[in-house]
Design brief:
The protein is of the alpha+beta class. Helix 4 links the parallel strand 22 and strand 23. The chain is globular and about 80 Å long. The structure holds ligand MIG. The site of ligand MIG has 10 residues, from loops. Belongs to the glycosyl hydrolase 31 family.
Amino acid sequence: MEEDQIPKELELSPATDTSLDENIHHVNNPVLDLPHIEKKYLGTATSYVKQKDGYIFTDGSAKVEIKVVSDEIIRVRLAPKGSFLEDFSYAISDLNQQSALFDIEEDENFYCVKTNMVHCKIQKKDFLISFEDHNSKIINADYTSMHWEENADFGGYYVYCTKHAFNQEVFFGAGDKATNLNLRGRRIQNWNSDTYSYAFNQDPLYKTIPFYIGVNDGDAYGIFFDNTFKTYFDFAAEHQERTSFWSEGGELQYYYIHGPHMMDVVKRYHSITGTHYMPPLWAIGYHQCRWSYYPENMVREVAKQFRQRNIPCDAIYLDIDYMDGYRCFTWNKHYFPNPKKMISDLASNGFKTVVMIDPGIKVDDSYWVFKEGQEKKYFCRRGDDYFMEGFVWPGRCQFPDFTNPAVREWWGGLYKGLVEDGVAGFWNDMNEPAVFGRGTFPDDVRHYYEGHRGSHRKAHNIYGMQMVRATYDGLKKLYQNKRPFTITRAAYSGTQRYSSVWTGDNIATWEHLKIGTLQLQRLSVSGLSFCGTDIGGFTGEPDGELYTRWMQFGVFSPFMRVHSAGDTRDREPWSFGEDWEKINKKFIELRYKLLPYIYSVFWEQHKYGLPILRPVAMLEQHIPKNLQREEEFAFGDKILVSPVLNPGQKNKIVYLPEGNWYYYFDNTGFEGGQEYTIETPLDEMPVFVKAGSVIPEYPVMQYTGEKKLEHLQLNVYYTAGEEDSYIYADHGDTFAYEQNIYSEKHFIVDGTQSLLTITQHVEGLHSERFDDFHIYLIGLPQEPVSVIQDGLEIKIQRDNENRLFVVVEKEFRKLIIQ
Ligand code: MIG
């Protein structure tokens, strides 16, 4: 859209526009169908007062706060009757570390709040807000002014914001939605729901991430609508030229996040909602789960099989059946007579044990958790003061109010026994919260909400997040600063600070494999990078081919776990016969080889807020066609993958972004910026490495830390240009990295001078235990004559597969290959 078209459209009078179809949500709500409920719009902006970090504008009765969070982030809040709600958010980790210089200008028609990067313009007439870059290019603009309607049902406001959707604009983000990457033309809602066997396009699902990224004319921006009530987003679905978002309560409060690159937007979104801590190394290995492995002999047998068959595995999960009558924090002593012994035997064989914990606490006076919770009044109550009760696995249950810090503290402590038994990780399920029959809690249930009390309407979408937060905080203390591992099904924005996530109860179909690739890419750009699907599909039966292709995608899923429902057949990597076992083994081994690379990608996520999976749209947002590609994505900065998503597929068209690439399995070189047809034999998948990359590789171990690392292998892929690579390492299980006890090796690979030079700079205080590097030189255009390490010539060697490598000192500065 041309810039000069905008002002005309901005003049549209909202009052004449009665067709706003956000009304559609009234259809199922008889109370709201009452015809007299009218939307109210902001009037003319007439004045403002300055605040410490922004301005409050008014039309004489309503107020709008524009808060400058940073040069690139502006927060907008609406107070329909002039008083803002308390400024509290569960999503935001810290706004105060940000800072910005800003100013305001005013003319006859506009106010303009300016930072170095963003101009937030408020058109006085109709109070329309727009965001422009410093060249006055409009990036995002109101279509109508912010509006609201008073709601007789619960005594609050439904709040609305309607923006222009530009002609070519596309939309990404929004969490776990099981739909195409580009959200244009879709309406979504957020209400965390237990959605067993969900379908493509089914909505809502388990998570609420009210954040999206818009890309128009090569420029990206983000909107984070920080509201925990049921929220809706309409991406040019109802009206081609409008994008709206609204909520059934709470405050209209959103952050405009400037780009211009999608990567910038995602980084900045992380800068306010936080990142995931470094996971323990074992948590990014291969995990084996099912509903459920029991009794003890079964668990031991599965573990034994892994080791006998030499298939790496770091963790085994115990689903709900390990508990005594599904009472959390207890053991079924019939199935598991001596859990401590079993867990320590597993541990000495390299297996971590992860167990499930649900929020529902069985109503049972002889059960200590229930009794304590009762005595302390920690369970949620109905509006009329009775306890909230619902049926879940244990039968009749009550539910802790995790929005109360005292309850969280108590809950965190409950893990003590299991931690002492040796359990290494915890899996929080059913925390949407899910209740059999009625789905979830009734609306009137009360929550403490950090002192800003409210009903379940307000707390529903953050219930799961606060549960896993309680879990994480408790474990952090109990493990005495060893890193916990947690995984949650329900989430709200910011949950990444406490947990990894999985996509819930998917199905063993090819369609669901594809849905999984979409969900994980989407979660990754929505802040929840540490994510995975149930590999193989939760319900239904995959055949060997589907299972194996899913395993291949699993290698490039940030979280790699096989899981399946209770009534399904065996799902171990060997369950489909020898041929499939061989391929599964090869790919699980690949995961273990790539671990130091994957760990470094997690570091980039943690430290810099970079998403782990990066859709091609994000790599090259300036190429319109890429905005529609959704089957291929980068895993970190250096590896591009395009999972095979169809049965019997012999080849696949893969687009390679600009630059040069190597096919991982045979090192064939490809020139990027175009599509190729790539063969897809069953034991390979399209995986490409960017030219110039340094990819560290571990020898295959049966579990992380099995053996001392003698050498660190570096695979260096020749480039005619220059490329940076970063490799991160640390203890693998403590928080010492927060005190800079880590090492970050920076390699510059340069093919412009000699044949190739590799320079190394190391930062951080951690010294690694390996002796030297084995550097493999891949794709050299000619045989090297000599290799010089810091002035001294070293030997060029060939391994038993005739691959070229050199042994180089750990501290080397410069390697010249000529
Ligand atoms: O009502 O714990 O998504 O992973 O195996 C089902 C049993 C409860 C749902 C989870 C699934 C888990 C299952 N749980």
